[in-house]
Each structure stands twice: as structure tokens, then as C-alpha cells.
Amino acid sequence: MPFTISSLAARWRPPSDSLYPTLPIQAFFFLTASLQWLWAVRDAFFTGKSLSVADGALQDFMMSSQYHELDAAELVTMHTAAPGSIFLRKLGGGCLLGLASNKLFLFVFAVPFTDARSFFSMHQPTVLHALFSNLALAAFHLYTLAHVPPASPGPLFHALYFRIGLLALEAAVLAALYLREFLLPVGVRGALGRYRGEETDFQGYTYSKNGIVSRIVMRTVTLVSGFYSIIFFRDLFMPGVPIPSYPFDLAYLAFTRAFVHSPPPGSAGDARLGEAAFFVGDKLSSQLTALAMLLVVAYKMTSALLLRKGPMTSMAEVNSCIGLKRKDTERTSGYIKCTQTWKLAFFSDMLIWSTIWRFVHVAADKAGADFHMFHHLMVVFFETFILGCFGFLQPVIPNGKPEEPVPAIESDGEGAAKKAKKDA
């Protein structure tokens, strides 16, 4: 067969008449997620760059245009612009890039399944997280719209309305597909994935089907993500409020200009009435970064705490749903789902880690600045390492203790016969 686009598609897709996602669904999510991916790449790597007239008006309102074509080391030596502001914008862009990449991988680049029910059963955590992420981001843009002065230029309103409509449309399509193809046929009880009883795996271990998939990942994600998500929860709902006993929190707030756009009551910034209104763009950018970070944390928490082991599933049975033939090994159904989410979470954590490392340490080396207030964010590296090991290497996780063999009980007659035979 000559090498053509159709022959390449035939090799990639299994020979079936009912592949899912279908081509119209793939085309729709390719268009919508690609736009979000493009905006996130701009925020992460080309902060402040204008992509259109409406987008330029939004960048001006969010006070991001002044950071275009400036790197971290230059901003550290500047006195007119704070490096913490561009750091938050790049960090939020990395998180939004991970969220958009999840949808692109799920509906465009992943190998399609032979039926819709198997697709949603395997990728249910990613589908639900994408749905709620879209709703949360759309609600935040509505919140941003409420802070726009009525005398603002028309392109600014157009940019916000376009983003709200895009996120709402994508969320509506996701909800319709999930309800029609999975939730209504399976039911709420089947979608929750709660199991009863015990089962024996291929290693002879007896485990509870309602147990946690990996306690190592659960502890790592809970401790690491729970530790640094506290500051982003504060930045979203209570910007500028210091957290007592949190390490380097005052230095972090000063570095990110939280005391400028959200001065605490009774402080010197609060005494200068009306000054914080000029920095509403910085406040909204900080809140958007906090929301994106919390959405990434929620995705990791879902796989670590909510998914259960479930029954043993043959990998050949899973691969038959996507038309592949691999070695017939057995894993729990929850472990197979978790490996998919851990791979995507690893990508998001890599973007977060690379942003922190590229900005903080490169700027510190070039400009000699002190960034000890970011050391508590460096723990994300350990979490990235654990997610990468369990997502890509897929080690065999012991599910419990092996069953002890029960000794055979012999009668007196059988025992005497065996002893006489042995003596003879």
C-alpha cells in the first residue's frame, strides 16, 4: 500500500465501522481546544502578546501588554514592573495549557474506542474534570466582565463574550455526550464506580475492590498539592490576606504585588483610597492563575482519592476496545484508568515545574535576586516524579497480602496407610 494520509489513518485506527469519538466530535474539540491551547501558550511563553484587536484589548485590561518581550532576568532589574506579576501570568498559562492539552489528547490524539461506553468508562475522570473546568473558567470570565468599566472599548467586551461562549458551548457538548452515551445507559450507581466484596488478582493477592488504587500516589498528591494549594485558594477568594505560620507568605504576597491590588484593611495601601482600582488587572490575573492551579490540583486529587480498584481486567480486553493486540496481562480496572490520568497530570506538573525553575532560578542566577519565598513551591518536582513513574513505568502495585495455603486435613486411616507405605 503506498504511503498516503488515508493509509496512515487506516494503520492508526482499528478497522471498525463504529469508532468513538467520531470525526465530527474530533473536529469540534480540535477547533475549540486549539483556541484555548493557543491562548495558554501565549500566556506561558509569550506573555502580553496580542493575537487580535479584541485580544489586545483584553491584554491591556489585564495589564499584561507591558510584559511583552521581557524575560525574567530583565524584569528583576526593572523598577517599573514587578517580576511577580509576570511569574503569575506564566504560571497560570502553564496550568491552562495543561487543561487544554487534556481535551486535545482525549478527543483528538488518543486512540479511539470501538464504542462510546468503553470510551467514557476509561476517560470518565478527564471528561468530568474538563466539564467542570469549563464551567469554572466561564464563571470567572463572567466575574471579570463585572469588573469591566462601562466606558471600556467594545473589543474588550467582544473578547470576554467570545471566551464565555466558547467555554459554555464546549461544556454543553461535553455534558450532552456524557449523559447520552454513558450516564443514562449505565446509571448513577454504575458511573460512581463503587464496588463491594473482595477479589484475587493475578499475583494471588486478595484485595478489596473498593480500595484506593495507589496509596503512594494518594499520600504524595494529598501532601504536596494540598500544601501549595492553600496559597492559591487564598489568592482566589481572599487576595492579599496573609496566612499565619505559612513559610515566606509575606514575602510571596509582596513579590506578587498582592498588597498593591488587594491591600489588607488598615494597611498603608488601604489608606491610599482608590489606588487599588488602577491594578484590577493584576488582581484578576492573580485570581485566574489561582483558579487554574486549583483545577489542576482537583484533577490529581480525583484520580488519587476517588477512583477505586474495581475488578481485575485483562489488558487484552481493554485493548480489544481500541483494536490493539498486546500482551495479555491483568490489572485492576481502576489502575488502568488512573494511569491515563497520571500521564496527563504529569504533563501539567511538568509545565508548572518548568515555569518555576525557568523563572525563579534563571532570574536569580542572572540578577542575583533572592527567591526563597518560592522554595515551598519546589515540592511539585517530587510529585511530578511520582506521577511520571506510576503513569508511564506502570509498576506492579501489590493489592494486599497473599492467601496462605490451608493445610490438608488427613484422616487416621489415610495417615496410617501412608506411614506403612513409607516404612516399607
UniProtKB/TrEMBL annotation:
<feature type="transmembrane region" description="Helical">
    <location>
        <begin position="372"/>
        <end position="393"/>
    </location>
</feature>
<protein>
    <recommendedName>
        <fullName>TLC domain-containing protein</fullName>
    </recommendedName>
</protein>
<feature type="transmembrane region" description="Helical">
    <location>
        <begin position="127"/>
        <end position="148"/>
    </location>
</feature>
<keyword id="KW-1133">Transmembrane helix</keyword>
<feature type="transmembrane region" description="Helical">
    <location>
        <begin position="341"/>
        <end position="360"/>
    </location>
</feature>
<keyword id="KW-0812">Transmembrane</keyword>
<feature type="transmembrane region" description="Helical">
    <location>
        <begin position="20"/>
        <end position="41"/>
    </location>
</feature>
<feature type="transmembrane region" description="Helical">
    <location>
        <begin position="288"/>
        <end position="307"/>
    </location>
</feature>
<feature type="transmembrane region" description="Helical">
    <location>
        <begin position="160"/>
        <end position="179"/>
    </location>
</feature>
<feature type="region of interest" description="Disordered">
    <location>
        <begin position="403"/>
        <end position="424"/>
    </location>
</feature>
<keyword id="KW-0472">Membrane</keyword>
<feature type="transmembrane region" description="Helical">
    <location>
        <begin position="216"/>
        <end position="233"/>
    </location>
</feature>
